[in-house]
Design brief:
Largest sheet: 13 strands, mixed
Helix content: 25-40%
Structural class: alpha+beta
Number of helices: 13
Shape: elongated
Number of strands: 22
Strand content: 25-35%
Distance between the termini: 65 Å
Radius of gyration: 36 Å
């Protein structure tokens, strides 16, 4: 095992047995495990008696360490792996060798061909049965993490989109393909904001000054239409409890991850509360019953862990963008002198990462045979070492090197804030002036245009300003077009009504559009001057999948989620704790 042997268990017997069910008396059968010579052949008497067998060096990494040789009248036939279910016909002797599971053991049976009704002139394993395929598709899957104390509330909500699972049985292999298109984790605690509950432009201007607590703490970026998670696995059929995996490929999409004390602390307490329930010690009755007795009386050795044999495992590169804000006292994995150095350099007691890009290289894991727990621990240990090797890249985005960049960031934040404030002022003035045109259709149209604008830099701001000025020039002709439209719609009355709206539009629309153009330029300057990176803006634009769940009564009763309950909780907040019912009015 990767982490060494933590315990050794000795058990009488073996998980491998050989049984001779043949009724023929003219053949002599013996079994020779790999690593033994003819002096250690195991005789297989007829009558169906179970004969236990094993190997002298079972932990050898040789690929033949689970093979046996069947001796039939001094002729040798090799079974390459008795852990795999198979059936081999020996036409020369009119018998078959069948390897199948039998309870907790792997049984190698000798059967007469008449029992199977099979004839063959070659030695070959038979097929594993007719092919079978199962396909499952789910459009959406949601998982809620709910805390019941000290106050019932929803901690996290995980949403998965377009799940596809395909399982096939082909001869001696089981094929499993799995894909999850999109995944997102939302923190549902109070004080978290997303794209729908915050002023995006003001947060971009105050990104350095205002501390952000986004609701979306994990999401994939769907780069190149990649799925969040894909898995391709081949599993061999085994006659024993071993898990045989000839091939396994795993891939993840690029992930944005946010870690902070606001949600990490409650989740850690929730996990500790669950694990503590299974670690309450030994009951007093058990102590009294075993007092004064020998320790081995009534003792049953624990079952041996399942063994996994991984021949090929490939994990594609994993790209992460990480935002982190943790108190230094929670970084217990760092030495004390490093935490003290970070605190001195950053002038704070917090460790922060601002959009740090971490790449875990692809891995081709060497063949492994051992317990599944040891395999997972070894894999986690390798990726932990990769993260430690990326420390230099992380520090470039961490609070350790934030101090030299603080003056520049504050300067950029100031320019962004001032230009954005001026732009908002001009935009609000233009919105007020648009109402003086007395044209409701025009007012609604301008409101929709302002909502659809996405200005992410000075170039976008100039382009939108040009469009606004062009619309202002078009408004100069309202004094001509509006009376004509009114006359066509309502005759002479419509003509004079259109004349009034046309005069107002000719005067007001150009002025309003000039103000809107200035607002667009201001928004462009603010977007360019902001110290936020493209990944930070991408994170800020994400909406949460759904609003937090409303729990009923003091017991935190869970009901099916509804838009009405979510909106009630968002509007009223914690003041509705213990609510019994929501009645639409």
């Amino acid at each position: 095992p990767v982490r060494g042997a933590l315990s050794v268990s000795f058990k009488e017997g073996s998980e491998f047995v050989a049984i001779n069910h043949s009724l023929r008396h003219d053949i002599h059968l013996a079994l020779r495990p790999f690593g033994c010579d003819d002096r250690h052949d195991i005789h297989l008497p007829s009558g169906g008696k179970e004969i236990l067998y094993g190997w002298p060096r079972p932990m050898n990494n040789d690929k033949k360490n689970r093979s046996v040789t069947l001796v039939v009248n001094h002729k040798l036939f090799t079974i390459t792996d008795v852990r795999k279910a198979s059936r081999t016909q020996l036409a020369q002797f009119n018998i078959s060798v069948v390897v199948t599971p039998k309870g907790n053991k792997a049984a190698l049976s000798i059967e007469d061909n008449n029992a199977f009704g099979a004839r063959s002139h070659t030695i070959q394993p038979t097929s594993g049965g007719s092919p079978l395929a199962v396909e499952i598709k789910l459009s959406r899957l949601g998982i809620s993490l709910i805390e019941d104390s000290p106050r019932p509330c929803e901690l996290l909500f995980f949403s998965f989109e377009l799940l596809r699972l395909e399982w096939k049985k082909e001869n001696d292999l089981r094929l499993l393909n799995m894909a999850i298109s999109e995944a997102q984790a939302d923190c549902q605690l109070p004080g978290r904001v997303d794209a729908q509950t915050t002023d995006r432009r003001r947060n971009e201007s105050l990104g350095l000054i205002k501390s952000e607590h986004p609701a979306v703490i994990m999401a994939n970026c769907a780069e190149g239409d990649r799925a969040f998670f894909t898995l391709s696995l081949k599993r061999g059929v085994s006659s024993s409890h071993d898990i045989l995996i000839p091939s396994m490929d795993v891939a993840f999409d690029t992930l944005d991850i946010t870690v902070d004390d606001k949600w990490l602390g409650p989740v850690v307490r929730w996990v500790e509360g669950i694990t503590a329930k299974g670690m309450m010690g030994v009951e007093l009755q058990d102590v009294q019953r075993t007092a004064g007795q020998h320790i081995i009386i009534g003792y049953k050795p624990p079952p041996l862990p399942r063994v996994v044999q991984m021949d090929h495992l490939h994990i594609a590169p994993i790209n992460l963008t990480v935002w982190c804000r943790l108190k230094l006292r929670t970084l217990s994995f760092l030495p004390q002198y490093m935490r003290a150095l970070i605190q001195v350099l950053s002038f704070s007691g917090k460790f922060t990462l601002d959009g740090a890009h971490v790449k875990l290289e692809d891995r081709a894991v060497p063949p492994h045979r051992g317990s599944l727990t040891d395999f997972i621990r070894g894999l986690v240990s390798e990726y932990s070492m990769s993260l430690l090797q990326s420390t230099a890249a992380l520090l470039g985005k961490s609070s350790v090197l934030n101090l030299p960049r603080v003056p520049l960031q504050f300067g950029m934040t100031g320019v962004s804030f001032v230009s954005d404030t001026v732009g908002i002022a001009f935009g609000e003035a233009a919105s007020v002036l648009s109402h003086l045109t007395f044209d409701d259709d025009y007012v609604n149209q301008q409101r929709q245009i302002r909502q659809k604008k996405e200005i992410r830099g000075i170039h976008d701001g100039v382009v939108e300003a040009g469009k606004s000025l062009a619309e202002g020039v078009e408004g100069l002709f309202d004094v001509v077009t509006k009376p004509i439209e009114g006359a066509k719609a309502s005759g002479i009355g419509g003509f004079f009504s259109g004349m009034g709206r046309g005069v107002a539009g000719t005067v007001v629309k150009p002025i309003s559009k000039i103000g809107q153009a200035l607002a667009d330029v201001g928004a462009g300057i603010a977007a360019t001057a902001t110290p936020d990176s493209a990944s930070t803006k991408r994170r800020r634009m994400r909406p949460r999948f759904r609003q937090p769940r409303l729990l009923y009564s003091e017991l935190g009763i869970v009901r099916p989620w509804s838009d009405l309950d979510g909106e009630v909780l968002r509007q009223l907040g914690p003041c509705i704790n213990g609510i019994e019912e929501v009645i639409p009015w």
